[in-house]
Amino acid sequence: MIVVTGGAGFIGSALVWRLNQLGYDNILIVDSLGTSEKWRNLVPLRYADYVEKDDFLRHAQGERLSQVCDFGSTGIEAIFHMGACSATTETDSRYLVQNNFEYTKHMALLARHSDARFIYASSAATYGDGVNGFVDAEDELDILRPLNMYGYSKQMFDLWARREGMLDSIAGLKFFNVFGPNEYHKGTMRSLVIKAYEQIMDSGKISLFKSYRPEYANGEQKRDFVYIKDVVDMTLFFFKHPEVNGIFNIGSSSAHTWNELAGAIFSALKRTPEIEYVEMPDELRTRYQYYTCSDVTKLRDAGYAGKQHTLDSAVYDYVVNYLQKAQHLGQEKERNQ
What we know:
12 helices; alpha/beta; globular; two-stranded parallel ribbon; seven-stranded parallel β-sheet
C-alpha cells in the first residue's frame, strides 16, 4: 500500500496520476475534501481507498490502521506526505503549526514505525528573500529566514527532522513555483498561468504586480517556474531510490520573469500580449519574493537524469491540452477513446 496525503490536492493527485501510469493503484488517499472542488481531481484516478486526514491521524496514533484500510500482507510501502495548508497568506500560526508541522511529525513517525519510505513536501518558501541563497544543504538550514508563517511551518519540520537524525533516511522536497493541471481548486493560490488564462478569456489582457524595488522593472521579478509533470517525475525518483535521502530542491533550475511567463501564455493562445501592471496589496509588499531559482545540482548528482520541459513547452501543454479542454490529469485517455 502506498499512502498519499493531500492526495486530492494539486501535487498529491498528480502523483497518483503518475503512479497509475506506472501500474500502481493500491493507493490510500488521505485528504480533507471540505467544500472545495478538489474532489474532481480524484474522479479519473485509480486508488484503493480514501480516508479523511483527521481519521487517518487518529487511527495512526492508535495503531489501528487495519480499521482504515486492509493493507494485506505487505503493509505500507511508502508515504508521500504532500498534505498541508499551502496558503502563503494564512495568518493563523496555530493552525499552520498543527497542520504543517505537527501532522508531518506524526506521518514521519508512522513511516518509521511501519518501515516505510517517507517523502515529504517542504517548500522553497523556507528560503525567504533568497539573501542566503537557494542551496539545499542540510547544514545551512539554520541560516534561512522565511518571509511568512507558511514557510516557517515548513522550516520547523526540516529542522526537527535534522535534530531527530531522520534526514539520512527520509527525503524532504523543496518545491519551487509549481504550475499545471489539477490546481483548479486552489483559489487565490493558483498559478499565474490559470489566472492569466481566465483573464485573457474574459478581457483579452492580464494583470501583473508592479515592482517596488528599483533594480526590478514592472513584471521583471523572477521566479523558478516548474511544471507539475516534471515535479512528479522528480518526486518519484526518491521512491525508486530509497538510498537517496536528505533535503532536495525541486525546480527548473532557471529563473524567468513574470513578463516571460505572460508571453508564453499569450503565445500558446496565439494572441498578442497585452499586460497591465497593478498595485501590490500592502500586506504582500514586505513578504514578496523578487527572485527565486533552484539549484538542483544535488538532485542531479544523486542520479536524477530526467529531461524537463522548457517554460514555453510546459505552458503550451497546460493551456492547450488542459485549460482549453477543461480537463484534469487522467482524463487524457478518456478523451482519446
